[in-house]
Amino acid sequence: xxxxxxxxxxxxxxxxxxxxxxxxxxxxxxxxxxxxxxxxxxxxxxxxxxxxxxxxxxxxxxxxxxxxxxxxxxxxxxxxxxxxxxxxxxxxxxxxxxxxxxxxxxxxxxxxxxxxxxxxxxxxxxxxxxxxxxxxxxxxxxxxxxxxxxxxxxxxxxxxxxxxxxxxxxxxxxxxxxxx
Length: 180
Fold this sequence. Notes:
Layout lengths: L17 H22 L10 E5 L2 E2 L4 E7 L6 E5 L3 E7 L6 E7 L7 E9 L6 E8 L17 H29 L1
Parallel strand pairs: 2-8
Antiparallel strand pairs: 1-3, 3-6, 4-5, 4-7, 5-6, 7-8
């Protein structure tokens, strides 16, 4: 049998070892990953802080929750004419957010009032959000849960509760009478 000359295999040959066929794919994936990472937004440590006030609309004398994320510090402060200065505390062990509570002044005028969140000490990063003071008094007590009910609905609810309590007492008394 005549000897056949040996020809080198091309990289696209089905007989090429697996590692040589996947190298171009790996290089393409690596290039795409580098391009994606370069286009991605900066990390949280480099991002600007973001603040929020909840609720954003409140009557004079109302209570609001204050939250700021992205400070990278364990201390912060929120300041507004609506409530003065409030020192914020870490919301978790990593201090990824700082929070606090404030009660707006009873004498504050209606309208939009800026709330300035300051990260760390004086000169730290700042973010400003709006707090809207609505006209009217702050509602207290039951928070309006009874105000929309008619006297008949309240009486019916009271009668149902009284009946349930009476039936429960009767059943318990009857069970204890059989046990003796």
